[in-house]
Design brief:
By secondary structure, the chain is an alpha+beta fold. It has helices at residues 12-23, 36-41, 50-58, 63-68, 89-93, 102-115, 235-245, 248-253, 297-318, 322-349, 357-372, 374-385, and strands at 5-8, 28-31, 47-48, 70-72, 74-79, 85-88, 97-99, 119-121, 125-130, 138-143, 146-151, 154-157, 175-190, 199-202, 208-214, 217-224, 259-273, 276-277, 280-282, 288-289. The strands form 4 sheets. The chain has an 8-stranded mixed β-sheet. The structure holds 8-demethyl-8-dimethylamino-flavin-adenine-dinucleotide and P-hydroxybenzoic acid.
């Protein structure tokens, strides 16, 4: 087989890249390790930045998002014993945000690729990348007992944190930055009307978050211990803990119900640089992970794809490698901005084991400063809505 761009991974980054390249007359093949059903069942992100909304509309993927997504003017922070604070993106940036699930975006992307006859190979086993520093890279994989080779001009590594692309880069040309946090997020989905606002709750018992997917689908999270197991958290225990961490008026209006999904994710920050090795370009979680507190992971995957698609289009159509050469630096500037914001919000909103009373006071004062200062409020809103591309 031959294609212009071999794309590893059919998450949002890989599918969106394939879609944009196709709209610009560039051929690609997407190789996905899992079944399509598995990819579509994963429940992840739910908050879209203004830039993500605009890009999805621009590339013809806005119709269902605009019909079913829930636009909002920012998210709330509810702090134990303090007045509530709105991260007011509308007021400070003039831009709205959108609650629209990653699952729905992935469905929209698969539908668009199918309608255009796009080639997506699922259950592609043992994907390997070859000759990345030559002008003739290729990719091999196994499917149904057969070994397949795809020759290509470029390889896009969009295969997430556990993928094969980043480990194909020699360690001595890559620098990685890693930070773990001493807790995870336990998330549930329930078929209940959501709390009307996206609301981050800080409480001495730990962090909690109310979010949403649709008028009858709610998403809730609580901070949990790293070694907690799903079985430790039957629904009754989850709801009791969740409600205990919300302000009383909020707890009174939450509609509880059986969970239809429950999962635990550890929180971490990770950045690998550069995001390029020869003809391999990394995008999305393959190159960086942020804790979900800032709602940045999916949005970063989209901004990486914005820069990478522009670069590949320029290289494939005009033979101009300038954007490819600057891709890593350009993408990383935005990545580090989101990494810092997600880290900051994670530190602000969670309980840390062994924290000193001084550190607690510092956290409290940071929150009070958001209320007290238009500048602080504007700074957070500007980052939450997403820095311009
Ligand atoms: P993905 O979605 O992980 O897709 C990578 C794909 O590559 C496949 N793959 C392979 N394919 C072939 N060969 C191999 N060797 C392969 N290895 C892996 C995988 O099966 C998969 O299909 O990465 P991508 O496309 O970069 O997208 C990134 C986003 O998924 C991620 O950043 C977000 O979900 C993070 N995130 C959030 N981001 C936001 O912007 N807003 C949010 O509100 C938000 N909430 C969240 C989140 C992530 C969470 N979890 C579960 C970590 C909430 C949670 C709980
Ligand atoms: C979600 O809806 O899944 C969500 C919302 C906000 C976040 C993280 C996740 O910061």
């Amino acid at each position: 087989m031959r294609t212009q761009v071999a794309i590893i991974g059919a998450g949002p980054a890989g599918l969106l890249l394939s879609h944009i390249l196709h709209r610009n007359g560039i051929d690609s093949v997407v190789l996905e390790r899992q079944t399509r059903a598995h990819v579509l069942e994963r429940i992840r992100a739910g908050v879209l930045e203004a830039g993500t909304i605009a890009l999805l509309r621009e590339v013809g993927l806005g119709e269902r998002m605009d019909r079913e997504g829930h636009p909002h003017d920012g998210s709330w922070i509810a702090w134990e014993g303090r007045p509530r604070f709105l991260i007011d993106t509308r007021k400070y940036t003039g831009k709205p945000m959108m609650a629209y699930g990653q699952t729905a975006i992935t469905e929209d992307l698969f539908a668009a690729r199918d309608a255009a006859g796009g080639k997506i190979v699922d259950e592609a086993a043992d994907v390997r990348l070859h000759e990345l520093t030559s002008s003739k890279p290729y990719v091999t994989y196994e499917k149904g007992g057969e070994q397949v080779r795809i020759d290509c001009d470029y390889v896009a590594g969009c295969d997430g944190y556990h993928g094969v692309s980043r480990p194909s880069i020699p360690l001595d040309v890559m620098k990685t930055y890693d930070k773990g946090y001493p807790f995870g997020w336990l998330g549930i989905m329930s078929e209940t009307p959501p709390y009307p606002d996206i609301c981050y709750c800080y409480h001495s018992r730990g962090f909690a978050l109310a979010s949403q997917r649709s008028p009858m689908l709610s998403r809730y999270y609580i901070q949990c211990d790293l070694d907690d197991k799903i079985d430790d958290w039957p629904d009754e225990r989850f709801w009791a803990e969740f409600l205990a961490r919300c302000p009383p008026d909020m707890a009174g209006s939450i509609v509880t119900g059986p969970s239809i999904e429950k999962s635990i994710a550890p929180l971490r920050s990770f950045v690998a640089e550069p995001m390029r090795y020869g003809r391999l370009f990394l995008a999305g979680d393959a190159a960086h992970i942020v804790p979900p507190t800032g709602a940045k992971g999916l949005n970063l995957a989209v901004s990486d794809v914005f820069y990478l698609s522009r670069a590949l289009i320029e290289a494939c159509r005009k033979g101009n490698p300038a954007y490819l050469d600057s891709y890593s630096d350009t993408a990383l500037r935005r990545v580090w901005g989101a990494a810092r914001m997600s880290w900051w919000l994670t530190m602000l909103l969670h309980r840390f084991p062994n924290e000193t009373p001084f550190e607690e006071q510092m956290r409290l004062n940071q929150f009070d400063y958001l209320h007290a200062s238009e500048h602080a409020a504007a700074t957070l809103a500007e980052q939450y809505v997403g820095l311009p591309y």
